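S.,

Sequence below, as promised.
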Amino acid sequence: MSPRQAATALFDPKEMPVSKSPQAPRESRSAFLGDLLDTLTERGRSLLRRRDQPGPAPTPDLATLGDLLLSRRGEASGVALARALLAAFDAAGPDERFAFLRTLADRFGPDRAAVETAIEAMRREGAGIEAVEALHAAAEPRRQELMRRLNLAPGGTAALVRMREELLKHLRGHPELRRVDADFAHLFGSWFNRGFLVLRHIDWTTPANILARIIRYEAVHAIGTWDDLRNRLEPADRRCYGFFHPQLVDEPLIFVEVALTEAIPDSVAPLLDLGRSPIEADQATTAVFYSISNTQRGLAGVSFGNFLIKQVVEDLKAELPNVRTFVTLSPAPGFAAWLARERANPDSEALDEATRAALLPLDTPGWHLDPVVAEAVREALLPVAAHYFLKARTADGRPADPVARFHLGNGARLERLNFLGDTSPNGLRQSHGLMVNYLYALDEIEKNHEALAEKGVIAASGAVRKALHGKPAGGPAA
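The prediction came back faster than expected:
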């Protein structure tokens, strides 16, 4: 039986269950629709297998299911096929999944004949805007419509996010998949725009399944135990907020942890200390965003964080008028790797020979535990760190540090460099313990954002600019 014959048999209305009570209550109609979809899906699985093959049904051919789905016009049949395709993709092995993703790139692009016809129509004398719109429609890759139809299946949005996560694993070695990724990013940018996101306050009374995800997804400062989580959520001087999407009800897309303090902190350890003494929220003057974690790798490149921070700032201002300062305590995840490259580069603009010699202790484990050694490293490291944040750029001209790109792009100001702000193994490994405060001065955010976007100018405090010239301020920070 051919795929088209299978589709015809699959959706033969004579085989559909019939309701004999058109006035049945809503519950009965819902049950009927559920049974209908189950019937369609199961029939699709049985008809798409080879009839002469004994044993359990093989995984349906994913590309064939995709073609069938695009050929259907009926809503019920489309939902059933979408669910069948997503289930088959989840059940498929890595090779089958990769093959389907490559098929999306090769076979589910624009219809070339339709594009050429539309181009010819647009070039005809007297062609109007309708011809341009027809060309635009013809040029859309077929896989975009396939993704839209897959999204109609129950759980379709989450399944597509997982599918893109699978795609991202192969992107570096298979550039032909970039066109598929571009279509995912285009659609996700619409489906996950700010208008669909819901900000929720996460606290110790939040359902346990969501709290478990907070533990799992925390990407900045690992949460080791439930007591650790409780210390970040329950006290009066702690807050946590997350963005949720209606189609991923129990999955935070991104969340931020906030400490309410009486001053701008220069070290993360006191904020995470299980034995600390909390303060009352009305004693706080400062809100510290000390951890921001994206949870869905399949949504990489879809911006949530800028909206999240600005919304949380507004909520905190309304709840706690005594809080006037909004600042981060951020990691510098690219600093150690950048510094290693500069130390290996004899022509580095950031290091001279004296600085290279002063930084040699960084190669010795436990260097930070010796106060004399640590002070010598501090004097050498902070000017280099200021160079990293103010001058080091990516190939396309953006700030080199990924966290800096995020906060500076949001309009924050580079406020302070904190030497040995994070002496955890991860902090020492990724940044030699360096942490950074970014200040969200509400009346300067727009100006700072525009200066960076239009002129590449980084907003930074006087203390950081002095550090660039080897004049760090006193204390543990520059």
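The chain is about 50% helix and 10% strand.

Coffee later?
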